[in-house]
Amino acid sequence: MSSVNLSVSLGNIQLTNPTILASGVLGTTKALLKRVAENGAGAVTIKSISREPREGHKNPTVITFEAGMLNAVGYSNPGVVAAAREFSGLQEVKVPVIASVIGTQKEDFAHVVEGLSGSKFSAIEIPLSCPHTPGFGLLAGQGTPDATFAITSEVRKVTKLPIFIKLSPNIPEICTIARAAEDAGADAITAVNSMGPGMIINIEAQRPILSFQVGGVTGDALRPIAVRCVFDLYKTIKIPIIGVGGISTGRHAIEMMMAGASAIGIGTGVFYRGIEVFQKVCDEMSQWMQENGVRDIRSIVALPMIEQPRMIKICDILEESPKVKTFFFKMNLQFIPGQFVMAWIPMLDEKPFTISYIQKDIMGISVLKRGEFTQALHQKKIGDILGIRGPYGKGFHFQTDLNLCIVGGGIGMASLATVVDRYRNVTIIQGGRTASEIIYQKRFPEMQLCTDDGSAGFKGTTVDLLRGLLTTQTFDKVYTCGPERMMDKVAELCKNHGIDCEVSLDRYMKCGFGVCGQCDCSGQRVCIDGPVFTTKELCRMEDFGKTTILKTGERVILHNHEGH
Questions:
Q1: Which residues, at least 6 apart from 173, have a Cβ–Cβ distance to it below 8 Å?
Q2: How distant is the alpha carbon of residue 417 from its chain centre?
């Protein structure tokens, strides 16, 4: 089976194959890690280490049932001092070794990481998601965006090693938490930890079987939940994902990677198929690849993202301005402000639009009439059919308690509207050439307006208005969307004032999922790597604000063609 390539990478860590021993299983000694590596694992993770020794819960701690396993081991481990001795000389293991580190306070995580620094680990995994151990994970409130950001930031201060954050499937806003980890410097997301907790009762004993009564649910029962989490995360974050949950066969591994995982963790699979499960999974993956003409395993990552449109009925239409209408439809999407969908009119064309309204299962896209497709869309009526696929791309990064400023130019305000809905207490600037281009005035009456001709609000540009505000106000972050030359000036102004800025780019797209290359901006695919980019990313994008690519693929000067 040498004709296929199973090698993958997690940042700068190279793996000969995508299988990783998940934390909590077998990783108690260096000898066991060596044995797992010898049985085909591409990398291994040690059992979670805390600041002080822990005995964990009393037995029974693990129980099987028809669809998987329940476990409540309770993070038993020898503590950081003894662990550092046990895991010295890790070069003997021959594959990358990941240290799993736990704590009750953010300082505990950093302390343990520093204590293990002499052991030559390849990466650090931080599980913030245990559902059954008091003082840790979910039971310690660590599964929130703020806690995730704080803990990741604290660990980043003390190590240059890659940091993997392990998340819970129990949290509805898992994507928001992943973005917080990414913002704080995480290098990958491990998804997911066990779910629940669940309980199994012995009806003869009339008591729960586990000593802690409840335990995390793993195995087959967890796998479809884990696949869905990975699928949603892939559309949200830029860092790699390690997919974990119920993987014990090659087909399971292929499925998880198709959902968006760059590598896969195996835990309960060791129980089902023995320590040889890693080699078995690799062999089964190789066989599937040969049978299906796949030469490189990396080519299947997120393959189902190439999806077909869902045909939906327009349930309402709102006229925002003489040239802008918002079309509403019933659809429940996992959406982060700044992401976009592709709207399709059969036999005509397909175009990208941001979600500008979201309330429960009702969503809306705001459309500026300016070409053949948008003119046809403006002629649609309530009850007409429209194709929608997505959402796609990376949205805005969210953090609570930010002093935020929104700068929208014309229809660009549509990309920012749901940010305002989420934050509410923000400073909003919207500009246009004339008053007729201003949208959402009733929706956001607190907006500060500006127009080129002075017909609404301040006479001047959004950049002029922002510059004036910065003489009396300070902002933690500025989000902007509008004409690219406007955003270029906003970003430069923010840079000069030491303010983080994120821009939402609009480039001509054909596919929406990173294949056609039409939306390139200095090697960044706006549909996948964006459309939201940070100031740091923009510094490496020389084409931003200067050139764009036409439908034909020709690169041209931006100011001659912006808006065409």
A1: 145
A2: 21
The answer to whether the annotation marks 120 as part of a ligand binding site is no
246 annotated ligand-binding residue: yes
Whether residues 149 and 212 share a domain: the answer is yes
Do the annotations mark residue 166 as ligand-binding?
A: yes
Whole-angstrom Cα Rg for the chain? 25
29-63 pLDDT tens trace: 999 999 999 999 999 999 999 999 999 999 999 99
Does residue 417 surpass a pLDDT of 50? yes
Distance, CA of 426 to CA of 420 (rounded, Å): 7
Q: How far apart are CA 385 and CA 3, in angstroms?
A: 47
- Domain count for the chain: 3
Handedness of CA 374, 378, 380, 382 (dihedral sign): positive
Residue 306 confidence (pLDDT): 60
pTM over 0.90: no
**312 and 247, same structural domain?**
no
Ligand-binding annotation for 277, yes or no, is no
Q: Which two tokens stand for residue 169?
A: 């499937």
Please state, in angstroms and rounded to a whole number, the distance separating the CA atoms of residues 435 and 438. 6
**Residues 411 and 466 placed together within one structural domain of the fold:** yes
The residues near 491 (Cβ < 8 Å, ≥ 6 apart) are 480, 501, 503, 535, 538
User: Domain range for residue 461?
Assistant: 404-561
Determine the Cα–Cα distance for residues 96 and 77; give it in Å rounded to an integer: 21
DSSP three-state, residue 486: helix
CA angle 347–509–323, rounded 5-degree value: 75
- Summarize pLDDT for 151-205 with one digit per residue, the tens: 999 999 999 999 999 999 998 889 999 999 999 999 999 999 999 999 999 999 9
Q: Using the predicted structure, report yes or no on whether residue 473 has a pLDDT greater than 60.
A: yes
Report the CATH number that the domain containing residue 436 is assigned in CATH. 3.40.50.80
Contacts of 492 by beta carbon, 8 Å cutoff, 6+ apart: none
**Residue 454 marked ligand-binding:** no
Assess contact for 20 and 49: CB atoms under 8 A: no
What is the DSSP code (8-state) at residue 531?
Answer: B
Break the chain down into helix, strand, coil percent, rounded to 5: 30, 30, 45
Query: Is residue 192 a known part of a binding site?
Result: yes
71 marked as binding residue = no
Sign of the four-CA dihedral 143, 149, 155, 156? positive
Here the tokens at position 199 are 């309980």
Cite the active site residues.
130
* Share of residues in the chain with pLDDT > 90 (%): 76
